[in-house]
Amino acid sequence: MSIATSQADGPLPAELGPNLRERLFRAVRGLLDVFDHHVGSRPVLRFAAILFVYGVELGLVFYLAYELRWDFATPDEYARQRLTLLIPIVACKLILLQSFGQFRSVLSYFGLADFGGVVISMCTVSGFMLALWYGSEVSAAPSRGVILMDFVLSVALISAFRLSLRVLRTWSIASHEHAGMAERRVAIIGAGDVGEALAKDLLQRRSSGLHPVFFIDNDPHKIGRSIHGLPVYGPLEKLVKLAPMARVNELVITLKGATPKRLKEIVELGRQIGATTQIIPSFTQLASGEVKVERSRPVAIEDLLGRAPVNLDSAGITRLLGDRVVLVTGAGGSIGSELCRQILAQRPRQLVMVDQTEIALFEIEQELVGTELGARLAPLIVDVTDGPAIRGVFERYRPEIVFHAAAHKHVPLMERQPAEALKNNTLATAGLTRLASEFGVERFVLISTDKAINPTSVMGCTKRLAEKTLQASQQAPGNQTAFLAVRFGNVLGSSGSVIPTFKRQIAQGGPVTVTHHEMTRYFMTIPEAVGLVLQTATLGRGGEIFILDMGQPVKIIEMARQMIELSGYRPEIDIEIKITGLRPGEKLFEELRHNEEIHTATDHPRIFQLKSESGPTNAAAWLEALHRTVEAGGSPAIKQAMQRLVPEYTPFLD
Predict the structure, then answer these.
(1) Catalytic residue among 93, 200, 222, 451, which?
(2) Is 238 labeled as catalytic in the residue annotation?
């Protein structure tokens, strides 16, 4: 962190004129380049140059301290004393400066660490002189006034020298890199630690093209004050008046723990003043080095739909997964890949990653293989519908915990191919549950969906049948495996979901297609959903279906409008929103439970258990019947067979 203020790092006065400023900048750059290339690259020359500069400075300071003490009429006795002590005192200062790394540091970079080294060095020498004054004859030591002035002047002159080099370098680099770049004037929303760090960084990096002009904050203790020379205004609503006067065309949000509602307000204010809105990472991410302060990003729909952080029983999850062999099917998918990330963080003995898609599996493997625990990965290209192949996985790796995320999930596609949906979502799940029970898997967790509730689609019905298969496996004679299912809604940003589709349509200039004005959906972030899935795995005892707290439903048309606005366009003016009508299998809204299910709480406030009054029947017969129906083919026959097993299913028959 630098001790320089924003004024010190600011631009040169405009009255110098552009031509004079440019000549000065070129001269400074030339001098700095000469020193860096011809002196700085040669350690001996560099050391000698710094020794000479510091020696001259400290010698002049010591001489001037005597003159100031006696109003430039130093008595002969003290003049002789000055000459006697000049070389020893300067030598001591130089030795201490070297000891505190001041000869090794780059001269044009000066911060608190360097300033502290200078202060401690000079303070130590002053302490020696003060001890000499107390312990010897007056003629052998400088007076206390000389000692004090020498200390103050030494610190001030060395710091001023270093700081001037830093300012000159900042000016010269800014002039060189900023030439021809359109400047964007920034209002920083939030005058906390992250906002302060951003302002300092932007003021020092004029070449970034971003020029901070003021802060906006609601804290009354900060309003009316300044940070790095930038005024702090408030409350937030004043932005509408202030922004046009300051010609603001960019808002950067640095608020700690900003709620989605607050973010929406800021984005709306930005839209009113014609400014784009960016968001900066949290201070925790900055401190950990995960991201850098200058790496702001546009506000995304995920920020506006975000929810409160989830508190997990990390110790319980570690006990479940630590030093265990864990198998994840569908490991290359949106949920499967995040499962792999979070499971690997719990230090399993081995993480077996199964997927039928080579590219998706390769990407998650490359992401994780370079980590500390990368050697514990076992990526396998296996189709879960291939019974012999998946049996080979169980025989070789003997998994103790299984997370089954492999599934066909796209509603319109599965509506046209019910046989594929049944094979992948239901029959493959049945095969996996049999293997899990046979090989003594401790826990088997099925990733289900809210579309399995009173399903209207093939995809939802096949997932409901998978749940029934799971419950039947739990009650099978001799079974020792705990089978669990977890339902949740849409996850933000997953492949094929509405958000990537809207982004693509907006990038193409529209229209953005929405199936119905009143359509709503529940949304969760992928990390939140996966964290709760892992937590659920610690809660179940076997046979339960859990549902995650999915918050409030979101209108899809409102989401479309917000995404258009976040992209800098106006809904229905720049980008059309087109209503296309419900597709086969789609619902206007998703439900949270079947009519016959009882919703009960668990030990975790964001996880609920569903209890059904009608227990599952023996699945062997109807699974065999389904298998024969799939082999026979014919979409209407398959859908009717599914309806007989799931009476609440309302199929769309071609």
Answers:
(1) 451
(2) no
